[in-house]
């Protein structure tokens, strides 16, 4: 079992990017640039997001990416909550990035960063 601590929200940057896009100060290609790996990870490891894509209105997926020097080659990979739990039990705290991804228009944005720590 693990809990999330130390949340860093990127919601303000998300809202700012959407405003800039709608105002024409950002290009579509600047914000709708999710690569194949990110879209595939969202499809296979992600969960349905609670909101629709701010660009095209289609369904969003939310995917979690894990980071820790102790993870070795597993760092920087998409993982499910169960996999994150096993990693935290194995190596201790890991950083988790929550990213929303639209498979249709390729919108993607880092929503927040948290630290997953074991419950003691």
UniProtKB/TrEMBL annotation:
InterPro entries: DUF5318 (IPR035169)
Pfam families the record matches: DUF5318 (PF17249)
Domain of life: Bacteria
Listed name of the protein: DUF5318 family protein
Native source organism of the sequence: Corynebacterium lujinxingii
């Amino acid at each position: 079992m693990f809990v999330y601590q130390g949340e860093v929200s990127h919601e303000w940057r998300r809202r700012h990017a959407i405003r800039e896009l709608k105002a024409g100060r950002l290009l579509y290609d600047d914000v709708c640039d999710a690569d194949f790996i990110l879209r595939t990870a969202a499809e296979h490891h992600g969960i349905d997001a609670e909101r629709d894509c701010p660009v095209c209105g289609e369904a969003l997926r939310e995917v979690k990416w894990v980071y820790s020097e102790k993870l070795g080659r597993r760092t920087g990979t998409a993982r499910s909550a169960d996999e994150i739990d096993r990693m935290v039990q194995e190596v201790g705290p890991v950083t988790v990035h929550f990213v929303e991804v639209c498979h249709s228009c390729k919108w993607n944005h880092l929503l927040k960063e948290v630290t997953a720590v074991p419950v003691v």
